[in-house]
Amino acid sequence: MKYFRLLVLLLLIAVCFAGCNPRGGNKASDNSGGLNRNPTHIRYSKHARCRMDCRNITQNEIVDLIHRGYINYKKCNLTGDECHKRYAIEGYEQNAKLRIIVAECGNEATVITCIDLDHDWPCTCPGDERHH
């Protein structure tokens, strides 16, 4: 009986670890990493709006990525307080693989930029000159 209780306890710990690990699994709900998937308000930086326009990315696609996209931790910057974290969220929309960079502060998300990972679109947005 003592070994049975120990086995049940170990099994519960293993199940909790697998379900609570933000880097485990591939579903959006398993991959929230502290990101609020349902912000009250979504803002768009001028840079994000410019990138969306030249890459034909809609607000509906952005919202869908926030709700169900996969967080790519290799492209995130999660240091600092809540309002300075940057989440890289990826997923497929309209047969294109997209990545958006989102900052979150309180119950508001700000889309900083969006990238079409499948196609290099020729567009110049304000602030691009800093990267040359």
Could you characterize what this model shows?
By secondary structure, the chain is an alpha+beta fold. Strands 1-5-4-3-2 form a five-stranded mixed beta sheet. Helices cover 30% and strands 25% of the residues. The chain is globular, with a radius of gyration of 18 Å. The chain is built from three helices and five strands; from the N terminus they run H-E-H-H-E-E-E-E. It has one domain (34-126): YaeB-like fold (2-Layer Sandwich).
Short description:
The chain is an alpha+beta fold and 132 residues long. It has helices spanning 2-20, 46-55, 59-68; strands spanning 41-44, 70-71, 86-93, 96-105, 108-116.
Topology (elements, then pairings):
Layout: H1 2-20, E1 41-44, H2 46-55, H3 59-68, E2 70-71, E3 86-93, E4 96-105, E5 108-116
Parallel strand pairs: 1-5
Antiparallel strand pairs: 2-3, 3-4, 4-5
Secondary-structure element series: HEHHEEEE
The structural domain count equals 1
Radius of gyration: 18 Å
CATH architectural designation:
2-Layer Sandwich
- How many helical elements? 3
Largest sheet strand order: 1-5-4-3-2
